Amino acid sequence: MSERIENRASFDLIRYSQVWEDADILLEALDLQSNDVALSIASAGDNAFAMLAQAPRAVYAIDLSFPQIACCELRKAMYRQLSHRDHLLFGGVVAGEMDRASVFATLELPSSVEEYWQHNKDLIHQGFMQTGKFERYFGLFRNRVLPLIHNRRRISQLIEPKTTEQRLEFYDKKWDNLRWKIMFRLFFSRFAMGRLGRDKEFFAYVEGSVADRILGRAKHALTHLDTAENPYLHYILNGIYDTALPYSLRPENYDKIRDNLDKISFQQVSIQEFLSGHKGEITAFNLSDIFEYMTQQDTDELFRLMLEKTPSGSRFAYWNMLAPRQCGEDVRKQYNLTTNKATNTDLLNRDKAFFYSKFYLDKVN
Fold first, then answer.
1. What are phi and psi of 45, to 5 degrees?
2. What whole-number distance in Å separates Cα of residue 251 and Cα of residue 256?
3. CA 61, chain centre distance (Å)
4. Domains of the chain by start residue, with CATH
5. Which residues contact 24 (CB under 8 A, 6 or more apart)?
6. Pick from 43, 41, 52, 56: which is nearest to 318 by CA?
7. CA distances from 14 to 11, 168, 251, 340 (A)
8. d(CA 40, CA 288)
9. Fewest Cβ atoms closer than 10 Å to its Cβ: which of 13, 264, 284, 321?
């Protein structure tokens, strides 16, 4: 393999304190059953926990970054010990007051994770689900850029309930002004995102305009999706979840996740290392957008490694944000791996986390 992303980008910080991938379409795609064993990219944990609500046999959640694992283990303790409301308050994603230091002192954590958070108590005090690099990037957009484009009344109007026709009219006549186009392109450019939001190495295989593609997806989300029910949009605009929550934070899913916490484990390891050491079969994969950070050759090599661990009927779900990556045709034919373009397009068109350009669901037949 060519040089891996772990040797090119930094993984010693909390890059994401929330997951910015829509668990609703992920769970619909994977359709987890009680006999499934799932492997998930951990990130901040949201979608790995969401998978527990479908009660699979086991979920292994892995990440290269220990700070990301620390976020996941903290969330696991929060699910186990806190009420739904206190979970949201402790994370800092809803309005309200809480003595977070006192609550943190009650949480039962692995020793290495507790030590990490003891050294980062300022993040606990702030509400740690607000403190990832990507969340702070959205905070800059919300507090510094958006006020230069629209006032708070207009922003509130954007997420009021509307029909599709009303959203299209609102976007064309009231939202899509010259300042929106210019400021959006500047803030979501390759340079700004690489410096302030993600990592420049995440764009190594991206060609063309980053901002133009994200702007096109944003228009789709603001017109063709229900803005009143989009939690990712609400957080970007308001810094909290108000009338809409992501799947793993909805009250109707909270006890389902809590009841299955013993089925999830988190490991700081690369996917290649995990698969090399895992002796059982994996039947469902949540791969996030990891292939964007690889060459096509590396993507195919990883698919071969995964497919050697999978029985018939296994599913692979993954996103492309900017770099086009999917399993190559030679590997597909060798392992009888299929994908349905119509299904993929339908799922992408309903994706509330609207930054991604492609969604893939591959199946072993």
1. 100, -20
2. 10
3. 13
4. 5-129+247-364 (3.40.50.150), 133-238 (no CATH)
5. 247, 350, 352
6. 41
7. 8, 37, 26, 35
8. 8
9. 13
